[in-house]
Design brief:
Elements: H1 12-17, H2 21-47, H3 50-56, H4 58-85, H5 88-94, E1 96-99, E2 102-104, H6 107-135, H7 137-156, H8 161-189, H9 192-220, H10 227-234, H11 240-249, H12 254-259, H13 263-272, H14 282-298, H15 310-335, H16 337-343, H17 348-376, H18 378-401, H19 406-422
Antiparallel strand pairs: 1-2
């Protein structure tokens, strides 16, 4: 019998569990190399101007625009019900008669219609996070678009106030997904220099959607049958399917891919986003993303309770105040500007024309706000804007209380227009 000792080779798991000094050195060198590449990628993006970034990332700019078009579509859908409340035929079919050839949607149903969409959006925003984390920005948004197609079908064949109320809640759910995903996707696929412009553009897309719905309802509001509101409802279908097709061929967010450990796919996505500069390469960008994600993981994850403690409590109150003040100082009038014009005594054609003009002025004011923000800052514009809007709202209330003569009517319409544009 042989006395030789047979030496067994260690398994792969044993090698990994007990790395040699050479393995540690290689790993250390790889980490240093990743960090160097990440810093290089960050520096390249920081050194770019906005124009250089657009030229270097043309595809990223295009796909950010495509995703932002979901906001144009959402704006159209959101403002549509406000236009219907002021549409004569819609009020005649679903409202209450208050005089000869005069119908109105009751205040309770007006409130219900205006609140139903945000209720659905509230649900959509909450479910957008886990859905997007699981399947990605593209598929979450495509799913929302397909669901919206189905809900528009129900909306189109609605024949009661209750059905319209229900469909607004249902449509609101994909709206919430778009609200959550559009700015996040845009900020993740464009370079650092384009992140602020990309997110600022979203407010302009809200104004574009309002302008489109204003033009369509202005044309159809004079119809004396259900086409006055059925056709504008049907025209919602012009958005979801084309956008879904475009997003199907769009690249996924490289940040989402890196979080899922799909590094090779992340490099391909970055290459598709148009890195035209000869000094970049996708591997550097992936290294930068990995470094940022690792830093995020090293920080303790906060929970919802911490939003109401210490300094974070003040931050929470500030955020709540910023969003609440939109509804308190002009948003509701902006959403129902045409209805306010009609209540001020304007003829239907004039009221809808003023509504269209208001939407056009809002688009211009959004672009003006970019210039003002550059020189005055966001807080200054917000504070003084709220103060001025409050003054006009007080004046509007006074004008509505002094009587129904022509001067008071014109004053109400003018003040409502100013408040809508300031918003």
């Amino acid at each position: 019998m042989s006395n030789a000792i047979t030496e067994e080779k260690p398994t792969l798991s044993e090698v990994e569990a007990h790395p040699t000094s050479a393995d540690i050195a290689v790993y250390h060198d790889e980490k240093i190399d990743d960090r160097a590449r990440a810093i290089n990628a960050e520096q390249i993006e920081h050194d770019m101007t906005v124009l250089q970034a657009v030229k270097a990332y043309p595809a990223a700019s295009w796909w950010a625009f495509v995703m932002s078009c979901t906001i144009i579509m959402e704006s159209y859908c959101v403002f549509l019900m406000g236009q219907f409340i002021a549409t004569h035929q819609f009020a005649k079919d679903f409202g209450k008669q208050i005089g000869p050839d005069t119908w109105i949607i009751e205040a309770s149903w007006q409130s219900a219609f205006q609140c139903s969409g945000p209720v659905g959006a509230f649900i959509g925003v909450f479910i957008a996070g886990p859905i997007t984390s699981k399947i990605g920005y593209r598929w979450a948004t495509i799913g929302g678009l397909m669901a919206l197609n189905a809900f528009i079908f129900i909306f189109y064949f609605g024949n009661s106030q209750g059905m319209f109320f229900a469909t607004q809640i249902l449509e609101g759910i994909p709206w919430g997904i778009f609200i959550a995903n559009a700015p996040a996707y845009c900020s993740e696929i464009v370079p650092l220099r384009l992140r602020a412009p990309a997110t600022q553009m979203l407010q302009m897309f809200w104004a574009i959607g309002a302008l489109i719905v204003g033009g369509i309802t202005y044309h159809f509001q004079s119809k004396n049958d259900s086409s006055a509101y059925r056709v504008p409802i049907a025209l919602q279908w012009m958005f979801p399917t084309p956008l879904a097709i475009l997003l199907f061929i769009a690249p996924e967010s490289p940040w989402w891919l890196v979080r899922k450990g799909r590094l090779a796919e992340a490099e391909k996505a970055i290459a598709r986003l148009g890195r035209a500069s000869a000094n970049d390469n996708p591997a550097d960008a992936v290294a930068m993303i990995r470094r940022t994600i690792e830093l995020e993981k090293s920080v303790k994850q906060p929970n919802l309770v911490e939003l109401w403690k210490g300094t974070d409590l003040y931050r929470t109150l500030i955020v709540c105040g910023v969003y609440a003040s939109q509804n308190l100082t002009g948003n509701l009038i902006a959403n129902q500007a045409v209805y306010f014009f009609k209540q001020a005594g304007m003829a239907d054609d004039t009221a809808f024309a003023l509504g269209l003009i208001t939407s056009a002025l809002q688009l211009i004011m959004v672009m003006v706000s970019w210039v003002l923000t550059t020189y005055l800052g966001r807080r200054t514009i917000y504070d003084y804007g709220q103060l001025i809007a409050t003054g006009f709202l007080v004046a509007l209330g006074i004008a509505a209380s002094v009587g129904h003569n022509k001067a008071a009517t014109n004053a109400q319409a003018s003040l409502a227009l100013i408040v809508s544009v300031l918003f």
